[in-house]
């Protein structure tokens, strides 16, 4: 995605308009602030409300007095919503997939072969056509033996057929089990066996994984495979699948078309999805999502995205098995939008799988709406800034001036934020950057993890589109809070969505109280129509985090810590599980520190580690390859490859100094800064099992993989402490030491340990 930012093209554009841009900027920059005075927005977005359940500080969305649960009358289930929307927009384009023109393999200098695709235009299916395909597929499932007491699992990358199969299951009240395509074998076996799924719907890429574990699957009887291209007709199934009924997706459709079965539609409280999360610890848990949960979130988000309708085009590339993408596509369905399918490897003109000289998905689709997780937006920002820095000269000067002026405008003057000066800088500086995503993005949805203020401002300014930063969990079907388009403040996730309440409950042990001033703080508890039914086959865990109040409202205890701003917007400030009490009583929030350290130019990913038996913390750091290698070359450091560079003491010292600098800028305490770091050359990916599909770190898995390194960290520092202690002992009379040792403050030890 980042490589599509062509510095040469950008330079020519800026040089073309450079002189006029500078003159115009000076004129507008001086006259506009004089003629138009800015005004601060004081809009009330959330208001306190009295609710039942545990005592706390509760807020609702200021737009509603009663929680909304449906987008329109009659759309009480996902099946009903799908049918009504397809009838309303029957002739409009709905799902689009690019046609494969040519596939070739390119051999790199290291001998490895890479697949390159030449893709054509998007080929579209209308809402009416998609409805017919889903209905046919549903009838085909019945012919294969499915009924309301059986479950079907989808194990595939995001694509149009994924959504068709998903909706088809609902036509016959069949619960869908969603499984990440990147899930490991143990987790895949666990999710399929626990739910007693009888049919597995997958793409041909996943068949090898299925063949390897087929003997461990207790209930799977049918395998339905999506066709990828002509070559996928020969699936190459191994003998290990010979005991299963294997059919292509189109064969099941034809079976249903020739033998149609009347629809058997679900109820509002029926379980639509058992969604397995790629959690940070242990085997994944299956969250039971009702039809009412899905339509409530869709109805609520519809009120937030400005002017969303059938003219909008959505670029879909995140995993549909993740609640964020599934919720986003449910919103698009509700609004009658077009959905064009993509992938991270074909996203832009220079994505890894796009043949050189041909167009990536964003350039062809020209989307108006898209969703992203913070890790992707952070990398877009870093990539653009690196190109600008490398180009230098007039390009860098204009970019810096334009960005600073736009940032000042966004934070202050309404006119400056949206008026003539914005148009000027957009034309002179930012137009080329926006071409990265097709040039027509008008609103972005961001979720999955906290987005840094720097990245939020950067995307907002450079892409010219507001970012709706959302907060939600699988347990609330992504529906909790969502920032509004006209809110230019960063670091917040907006007011509660109109489908739910958000309550803060005091956590006295952590020092977060609803009575705190100037803002109430506490654990975030979500109640309302988006709160799911609990964990499948795990009543103990369900009882632990789900509560029903005296009025019958269901509440989910998130474990996240938040605070409410005076305008009713929520800010996530901590997480209970990420807080570690150090040896001498100091509390350290791992997530908060990691978020601060991520702002270093050298950091691609980081995990902080601490435990109660020590007074310091350490960190594992995946560096930004280009940034570290560039520094090493400029510093005259010789290295063979990135792995070799990561072992160099000079490189470790350079990165650690950068971490200390950004940590101090973020006002971290000394004990929050890592005493030792380890640089790791290999990136953390969902395939490696070290990050989730939303690119959040899986702390327990990382700790297990790098157990030796973490143990060595503490051993080295402990040895350093022992040497220091022995030196002190040798300088003091033993009898004198024993008589005074009780009066020595314990914290003295930590200062020795940190040196």
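Sequence proposed for the structure above (755 residues):
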């Amino acid at each position: 995605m980042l490589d599509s930012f062509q510095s040469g093209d950008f330079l020519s554009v800026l040089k073309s308009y450079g002189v006029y841009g500078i003159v115009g900027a000076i004129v507008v920059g001086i006259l506009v602030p004089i003629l138009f005075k800015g005004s601060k927005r004081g809009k009330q977005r959330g208001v306190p409300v009295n609710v039942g359940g545990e005592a706390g500080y509760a807020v609702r969305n200021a737009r509603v007095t009663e929680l909304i649960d449906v987008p329109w009358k009659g759309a009480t289930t996902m099946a009903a919503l799908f049918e009504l929307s397809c009838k309303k927009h029957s002739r409009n384009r709905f799902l689009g997939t690019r046609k494969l023109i040519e596939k070739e393999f390119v051999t790199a200098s290291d001998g490895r072969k890479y697949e390159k695709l030449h893709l054509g235009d998007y080929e579209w299916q209308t809402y009416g056509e998609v409805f017919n395909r889903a209905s046919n597929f549903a009838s085909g499932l019945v012919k294969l033996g499915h009924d309301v007491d059986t479950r079907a699992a989808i194990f595939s990358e995001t694509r149009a057929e994924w959504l068709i199969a998903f909706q088809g299951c609902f036509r016959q009240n069949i619960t869908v089990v969603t499984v990440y395509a990147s899930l490991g074998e143990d987790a895949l076996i666990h999710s399929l066996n626990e739910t007693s799924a009888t049919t597995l719907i997958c793409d041909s890429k996943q068949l090898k994984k299925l063949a390897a574990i087929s003997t461990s699957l207790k209930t799977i009887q049918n395998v339905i495979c999506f066709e990828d291209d002509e070559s996928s007709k020969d699936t190459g199934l191994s003998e290990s699948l010979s005991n299963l009924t294997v059919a292509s997706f189109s064969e099941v459709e034809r079976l249903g078309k020739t033998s149609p079965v009347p629809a058997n539609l679900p109820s509002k409280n029926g379980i639509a999805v058992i969604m397995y999360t790629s959690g940070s610890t242990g085997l994944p848990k299956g969250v039971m999502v009702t039809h009412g949960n899905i339509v409530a979130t869709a109805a609520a988000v519809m009120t937030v995205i400005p002017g969303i309708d059938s003219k909008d085009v959505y670029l879909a590339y995140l995993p549909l098995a993740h609640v964020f993408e599934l919720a986003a596509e449910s919103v698009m369905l509700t609004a009658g939008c077009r959905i064009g399918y993509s992938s991270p490897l074909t996203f832009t003109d220079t994505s890894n799988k796009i043949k050189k000289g041909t167009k990536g998905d964003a350039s062809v689709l020209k989307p108006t709406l898209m969703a992203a997780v913070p890790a992707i937006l952070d990398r877009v920002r870093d990539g653009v800034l690196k190109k600008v820095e490398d180009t230098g000269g007039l390009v860098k000067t204009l970019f810096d001036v334009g960005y600073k002026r736009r940032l000042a405008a966004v934070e202050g003057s309404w006119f400056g934020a949206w008026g003539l000066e914005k148009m000027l800088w957009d034309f002179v500086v930012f137009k080329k950057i926006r071409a990265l995503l097709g040039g027509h993005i008008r609103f972005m949805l961001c979720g999955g993890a906290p987005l840094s203020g720097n990245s939020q401002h950067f995307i907002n300014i450079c892409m010219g589109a507001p970012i709706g930063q959302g907060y939600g969990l699988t347990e609330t079907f992504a529906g909790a809070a969502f920032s509004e388009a006209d809110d230019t403040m960063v670091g917040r996730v907006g007011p509660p969505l109109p489908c739910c309440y958000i309550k803060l409950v005091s956590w006295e042990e952590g020092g977060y109280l609803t009575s705190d001033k100037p803002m109430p703080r506490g654990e975030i508890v979500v109640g309302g129509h988006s709160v799911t039914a609990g964990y499948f086959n795990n009543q103990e865990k369900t009882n632990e985090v789900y509560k029903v109040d005296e009025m019958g409202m269901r509440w989910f205890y998130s474990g996240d810590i938040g605070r409410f701003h005076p305008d009713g917007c929520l800010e996530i400030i901590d997480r209970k599980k990420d807080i570690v009490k150090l040896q001498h009583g100091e509390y350290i929030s791992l997530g908060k520190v990691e978020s601060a350290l991520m702002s270093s130019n050298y950091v691609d990913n980081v995990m902080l580690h601490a435990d109660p038996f020590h007074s310091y913390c350490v960190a594992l750091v995946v560096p930004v390859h280009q940034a570290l290698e560039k520094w090493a070359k400029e510093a005259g450091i010789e290295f063979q490859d990135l792995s070799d560079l990561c072992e160099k003491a000079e490189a470790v010292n350079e990165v650690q100094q950068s971490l200390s600098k950004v940590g101090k800028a973020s006002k971290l305490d000394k004990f929050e800064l890592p005493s030792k770091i380890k640089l790791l050359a290999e990136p953390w990916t969902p395939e490696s099992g070290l990050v989730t599909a939303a690119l959040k770190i899986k702390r327990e898995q990382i700790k297990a993989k790098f157990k030796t390194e973490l143990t060595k960290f503490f051993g080295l520092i402990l040895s350093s402490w022992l040497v220091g202690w022995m030196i002190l002992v040798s300088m003091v009379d033993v009898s004198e030491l024993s008589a005074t040792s009780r009066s020595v403050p314990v914290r003295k030890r930590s200062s020795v340990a940190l040196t």
